[in-house]
């Protein structure tokens, strides 16, 4: 999620410092489990209300009512992996997750945003350019869903308007015909190249650091990739003509994007071992906390479910892992705070599978300097 934080996340981040209640509810993709999901969700809201009554009695009625209104909007039985309910005095927001989540209930001075951040990295927007012999279609992708771009640039059509004029039957007719066919082929190649160049220029308006998947016959994909100025953005090519198979294209494109994410994860983990002397890298939550607060975070690499409570006593740059005897502030999850800090300072967050960073304290921050 480089250089961009969604409006959804910005709204949640902006409530930091206020009382924020987060309820993360796992859901079954199996529609026969709707009743069980509803019961579990109601039980979670009951527990959230108990927590509010115990610690924030003056706001319990207001925030509890907001949670129940969000509950009524949960699309049970529609294949979602979970729902996040987020309420404060200023906002009431529901976020749906297309992957399994763990149940969580928190009430603190910031929202539990880990799954929302993961959703945005997991479901990062991408583009699919489908090229065939005579036309090109552009799609915006998110997960397994593709939406075709229709504007003044796309769909784009290639018209071979070569003026065909047979040579006269003068002497050397066969050689003249061969020369004519050669000229015709060369002209078509030039025009096809112009078509690819125009497509490539049109992509400037859409890419914005997004990964690009190209699809089409192998020759067309190769010709486009060879002339494209966006070759660094191309993460995969899908062979075949999918003009009449948009659903199949969506499935194969998403599969390619997921494979790219796994390759990226492996490259990042491998690169950690290559940083000379670890001079530009902080490992473990305490050192990562310090560097993130100092604004040095360029890329944060963290295991998806790694969590660590902490304590602050005076110096906000120093995270304590045990409560001190003197006055202090508890940080329910220091990892969440680090993630928000890195994103707010224009850094990037990459999640790995649990256990992949065990040798690095489960969390690593690659610095800007």
Following the backbone from N to C, one meets helices and strands in this order, namely HEHHEEEHEEEEHEHEHEHEEEHEE
Assembly state (oligomeric): single chain
Low-confidence stretches: 162-166
Q: Number of helix segments? A: 9
What descriptors fit this protein?
38% helix; 9 helices; 369 residues; six-stranded mixed beta sheet; four-stranded antiparallel beta sheet; 16 strands; alpha+beta
Molecular structure report:
With 369 residues, the chain is of the alpha+beta class. Helix content is 38%, strand content 22%. The protein is built from nine helices and 16 strands. It has helices at 7-13, 34-55, 57-71, 114-122, 173-203, 218-227, 246-272, 285-293, 334-344, and strands spanning 20-26, 82-87, 92-97, 104-108, 126-131, 135-142, 145-148, 156-157, 212-216, 234-239, 281-283, 297-303, 310-312, 329-331, 348-352, 363-367. The strands form four sheets. Strands 5, 6, 7, 8, 9 and 10 form a six-stranded mixed beta sheet that branches. It has a four-stranded antiparallel beta sheet with strand order 3-2-1-4, sandwiched between helices. Strand 6 (135-142) and strand 7 form a beta hairpin. Helix 2 (34-55) packs antiparallel against helix 3 (57-71) and helix 8 packs parallel to helix 9 (334-344). The longest helix is centred in the middle third of the chain and has 31 residues, at 173-203.
């Amino acid at each position: 999620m480089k250089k961009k934080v969604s409006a959804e996340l910005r709204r949640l981040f902006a409530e930091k410092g206020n009382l924020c209640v987060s309820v993360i509810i796992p859901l079954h993709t199996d529609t026969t489990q709707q009743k069980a999901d509803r019961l579990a969700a109601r039980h979670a809201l009951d527990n959230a209300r108990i927590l509010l009554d115990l610690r924030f009695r003056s706001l319990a009625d207001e925030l509890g009512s907001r949670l129940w209104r969000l509950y009524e909007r949960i699309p049970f039985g529609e294949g979602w992996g979970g729902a996040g309910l987020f309420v404060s005095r200023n906002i009431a927001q529901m976020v749906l997750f297309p992957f399994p989540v763990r149940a969580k209930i928190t009430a603190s001075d910031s929202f539990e945003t880990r799954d929302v951040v993961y959703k945005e990295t997991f479901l990062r927007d991408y583009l699919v350019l489908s090229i065939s012999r005579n036309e090109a279609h552009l799609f915006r992708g998110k997960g397994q869903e593709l939406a075709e771009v229709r504007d003044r640039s796309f769909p784009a059509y290639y018209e071979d308007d070569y003026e065909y004029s047979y040579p006269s039957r003068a002497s050397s007719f066969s050689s003249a015909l061969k020369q004519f066919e050669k000229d015709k082929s060369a002209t078509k190649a030039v025009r096809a190249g112009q078509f690819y160049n125009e497509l490539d220029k049109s992509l400037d308006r859409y890419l914005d650091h997004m990964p690009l998947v190209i699809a089409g016959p192998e020759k067309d994909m190769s010709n486009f990739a060879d002339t494209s100025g966006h070759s660094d953005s191309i993460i995969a090519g899908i062979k075949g003509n999918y003009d009449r198979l948009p659903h199949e294209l969506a499935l194969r494109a998403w599969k390619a994007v997921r494979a790219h994410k796994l390759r990226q994860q492996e490259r990042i983990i491998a690169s950690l071992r290559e940083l000379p002397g670890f001079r530009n890298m902080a490992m473990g939550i305490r050192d990562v906390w310090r560097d993130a607060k100092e604004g040095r975070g360029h890329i944060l690499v963290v295991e998806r479910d790694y969590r660590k409570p902490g304590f602050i006593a005076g110096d906000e740059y120093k995270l304590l892992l045990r409560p001190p005897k003197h006055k202090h502030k508890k940080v329910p999850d220091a990892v969440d705070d680090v993630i928000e800090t890195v994103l707010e300072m224009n850094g990037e967050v990459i999640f790995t599978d649990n256990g992949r960073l065990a040798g690095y304290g489960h969390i690593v921050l690659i610095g800007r300097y």
